[in-house]
Amino acid sequence: MSNELLFPFIWFGKNILTNPAFFVGFLVFIGYLLLKKPFYEAFSGFLKATIGYLILNVGAAGLVTTFRPILAGLNEKYNLSASVIDPYFGLNAVNTALESIGETLTWVMFSLLIGFLLNIVLVLFRKLTRIRTLFITGHIMQQQAQTATWIIFFIFPQFRNITGAILIGIFAGVYWAVASNLSVEPTQRLTENAGFAIGHQQMFAVWAADKVSPYLGDPKKGVDDLKLPKWLSIFHEDLVATGTLMMLFFGLIMYILGPQILLGSGYEKYVAENKSFFIHVLQTSLTFAVYLSILKQGVRMFVSELTVSFQGISNTIIPGSIPAVDCAATYGFGSPNAILFGFLCGVLGQFLAIAGLVLFKSPILIVTGFVPVFFDNATIAVFANKRGGVKAAMITTFVSGILQVVLGAVAVVTFGLVGFGGWHGNIDQSTVWLFQGALMKGLGITGYVIAIVLMMLIPQIQYMKAKSKEQYYEGLVDLEEN
């Protein structure tokens, strides 16, 4: 084939496929056209998706720049490596790790598309697979696809190519389908058959909480029976909670390190200008919240367009599937107090576990991140409170907080992210994915196959245990049994 004929493909490969921002925009543009949207809407979707991804890059770069002196200071003074357990810090860590091996985030988009299409296929053949749910929470798909990309590329360096992208897509797609399918019955019990499942980061944990909570407490003695102080309501605000956590953790770390280590060669000028170290610490801590807010805004922009494109296609191909949506959709069905209660108990669990890491001189210092400690534990508490009251909500979220920290530290080491500053941190990723990653590291590609097979067996077991096969496919539960 002549160079003239190959030129369009070469240009597309170098300028679109290897440029994640434009690749996302291209996917959205094509998706809108396939949905028979007007050209101007497709163009608008392309712009919002591309600009959103570029905004994400700004936020990510800001986080890295702000966090780097703290990482360097901890390593210099205590030979410690700090990792924030939060999917957004995890994205930065994975991005930096991928760059360190000469790879780009383009593989993430390929894998996300493969995983989403696989989820559609699994639902399309639900009579064989027993999968009823389609995962449509776009920003979670992007986060998990990115983490899975690093896990597969790290464990299988020989597959840092299209073969690896397919392996990542299969792993992510099967997890999305199986884990969201596992959340159908708990969600339907909580919402009284509202017709949706959870598509987020704690689907296995929600199933486990739903199962164990009746043995831990009395559903008639719920969180609403407690009187929580009114001032705690400020933590319902994302920025307030994030800013407070950042000040608490990074402020303390920076004060321990001191201005000489943090400021380095600029220390003398800093002293000469009579600057306040307290204000520097406060501003730096709050800057984390600023860059996180920028990063999240970018994610919301491009993901909302991607979700519309994907959801429209899926509804056309597989009508009647059960949508798996953001965990926050369940908050209106449970106790409002359970959300804050779960956050507080999760924080206590995390703080205790972090103190344990320091006490036992762990080389990995874990820093609390907002997303896991809030959304994981708030969601678990809503389900646990419904089935086992305040006692179940307290126990399950406290244990979750401990596991997030301790197993998060193990995950940082297991997946070679020491020194990159973050880990995905959510409870499913620090338990289920950690176990699956250990299988792959220990058994190679055989471990990968075992992980996929074990996941695919879960809906088969669910179906076998279902009292009504018809209700199983409809995603209905008998509310009188609750």
What distinguishing features does this structure have?
three-stranded parallel β-sheet, 72% helix, 4% strand, 482 residues, single chain, mainly alpha, 19 helices
Can you describe this structure?
- The protein is mostly helical and 482 residues long.
- It is 72% helix and 4% strand.
- The protein is built from 19 helices and six strands.
- The strands form two sheets. The chain has a three-stranded parallel sheet. It has a three-stranded parallel sheet with strand order 2-4-3.
- Helix 4 packs parallel to helix 7 (138-155) and helix 10 (203-216) crosses helix 16 (370-414).
- The termini are far apart.
- The mean pLDDT is 86.
